[in-house]
Amino acid sequence: AQSVTQLDSQVPVFEEAPVELRCNYSSSVSVYLFWYVQYPNQGLQLLLKYLSGSTLVKGINGFEAEFNKSQTSFHLRKPSVHISDTAEYFCAVSAGGSYIPTFGRGTSLIVHP
Amino acid sequence: DAGVIQSPRHEVTEMGQEVTLRCKPISGHNSLFWYRQTMMRGLELLIYFNNNVPIDDSGMPEDRFSAKMPNASFSTLKIQPSEPRDSAVYFCASSGGGSYNEQFFGPGTRLTVL
């Protein structure tokens, strides 16, 4: 079985500050990892994904995430956030062989001017 | 590609009425998922289809909920009879299949049951 934990339900930050959204997973097999973003009144859309290879993955809108197998983490980072980054962010994991991803509860990123 | 299309975008109905939500996945995708999102419970997977066949419906709340996928380009989620606790945003997502493929979500249907 696979599971995902997003430790922070809400992360407030000021504009132009760096941000890290945390994600930890558990799985007994190899995994594929995803970050999705949901803007108000919209569906989720992919920010980035880790399948294999380099542990540092770059996505859209200046976001990046680092896969750490020993710590079973896949934290999302951005060096300087904008007001427009205010949204809900979801971490998801798919274990090899499972076509059904498991989503975390989401982290609400609130960027203040 | 127009992406995943859902209709209606908003639905307001009265308790006891039948509600049908519709989804058109991205052409060529063979996996389709229905989710429900609420503040209390977050994002919940209701049912998963692969090649039009329901594979996992363990998330369907109860017999009032049913889902069909008569062909590769159309799926419905039906609630009969509807109850106020069914109020939520319902998302449809499609994928190219395989655990390495991301899901593409539709804009959702906001359902309000009075």
Characterization of this structure:
The complex is a heterodimer of chains A (113) and B (114). In chain A, 0% of the residues lie in helices and 53% in strands. Chain A is mainly β. In chain A, the strands form three sheets. In chain A, strands 2, 5, 6, 10, 11 and 12 form a six-stranded mixed beta sheet that branches. In chain A, strands 3-9-8-7 form a four-stranded antiparallel beta sheet, with no helix packed on it. A two-stranded antiparallel sheet of chain A has the order 1-4. The radius of gyration of chain A is 13 Å and the shape is globular. Chain B has 114 residues and is mainly β. Chain B is built from no helices and eleven strands. In chain B, strand 7 and strand 8 (74-79) form a beta hairpin. The mean pLDDT of chain B is 94.
Q: Quick recap of the structure?
A:
The complex is a heterodimer of chains A (113) and B (114). Chain A is mainly beta and 113 residues long.
What's the topology here?
The complex is a heterodimer of chains A (113) and B (114).
Chain A: E1 3-5, E2 10-14, E3 19-21, E4 24-26, E5 31-38, E6 44-50, E7 56-58, E8 64-68, E9 73-78, E10 87-95, E11 102-103, E12 107-112
Parallel strand pairs in A: 2-12
Antiparallel strand pairs in A: 1-4, 3-9, 5-6, 5-10, 7-8, 8-9, 10-11, 10-12
Chain B: E1 5-7, E2 10-13, E3 19-24, E4 31-38, E5 42-50, E6 53-56, E7 65-71, E8 74-79, E9 88-95, E10 104-105, E11 109-113
Parallel strand pairs in B: 2-11
Antiparallel strand pairs in B: 1-3, 3-8, 4-5, 4-9, 5-6, 7-8, 9-10, 9-11
